[in-house]
Amino acid sequence: MKDKVFAILLCYNTPHERLKEIIENIINQTYEVYRVLIWDNASPNKIDEFLSENNFLNNGKIIYIKSQENLGAGGGFSAAIEYIENKFKDFDWIWFIEDDVKPEINCLETMIKFKNSSKFICPVRKFKDGTIADYQTFYDYKIQSWVSIKNKRNDYCYINVKTFEGILVHKELFKIIGLPPKENFIMHDDEIFTLNASLYENILLAKNAHITILKDKESYYLSPRSAYYILRNLFLIKNFLEKNDMFSIRVKVVFYILFIWRAFFYCFKFTFIHPNAKGIYAVIMSIIHGLKGRFGRYF
């Protein structure tokens, strides 16, 4: 029997035309989705009216839920999965999609081919100009070494960290690893979720499954808000590694080098390339809140 895939599209204040483009790409996948849950994180821009005016809510596959508040990425996905598990029993996979990415029309079909190889399958992210957005190396905490995936010749490889954008997770795996973390609000919640999953399942990267980031590169990396959560939530990654006895001396060295490099990167950008006092403030507060253990929505 064909596996049933339940797609979750998490959105917040998404430009209407972009939202339309993403929805159409989801429902027109070459591998048909079973249902699409559009989870609206309390958007102020009347997404519900837009969906109704464009007849999306008349599509029997589409479900729309508006949250009472902005739960962030991990919180939004967690709430959406809980809703699906309470209302539906006859599905096999959850497909995570955020509102700044568009899956290529055969993305799901390409990933589902690996269903017998892993319960956690990921696509490759690209920018609109075709350049790869994903890191071509990652740090494997099990063997405590850097691993390159750039020259792997197979059409798949195994990794241990990935973003939410486009991941395909079997429902049985949630019983083992739990739901995405909520305390991050945004940023690195997906990395903690995938790192946790990698302790129990080989995370498979399907190299020919592609998903396009719709934001331009500059806005994707440089907002003060993003800088705050990226830096502060690195402390949550540290907490996760310590909890799971993965924070060895070698890992500590790698972690703090990366943390210092990122902090310097944002300070340099906000001081010299894109001067922004709020950006410098964001960097300072991220470090203070991270050291004090103040997580959740603060910026």
Largest sheet: 9 strands, mixed
Q: Give me the strand/helix succession.
A: EHEHEHEEHEEEEEHHEHHHHH
| CATH third-tier fold name of the largest domain | Spore Coat Polysaccharide Biosynthesis Protein SpsA, Chain A
> What would you give as the CATH superfamily of the largest domain?
Spore Coat Polysaccharide Biosynthesis Protein SpsA, Chain A
Number of helices: 11
The CATH class assignment of the largest domain is: Alpha Beta
Number of strands: 11
Q: Summarize model confidence as the mean pLDDT.
A: 93
> Rough shape?
globular
Low-confidence stretches: none
**Alpha-carbon Rg, integer:** 19 Å
Q: How many separate domains?
A: 2
Query: Which CATH-level-2 architecture of the largest domain?
Result: Alpha-Beta Complex
Ends distance = 47 Å
**What share of the residues lie within helices?**
40-55%
Structural class, judged by helices and strands?
Answer: alpha/beta
SS strand fraction: 15-25%
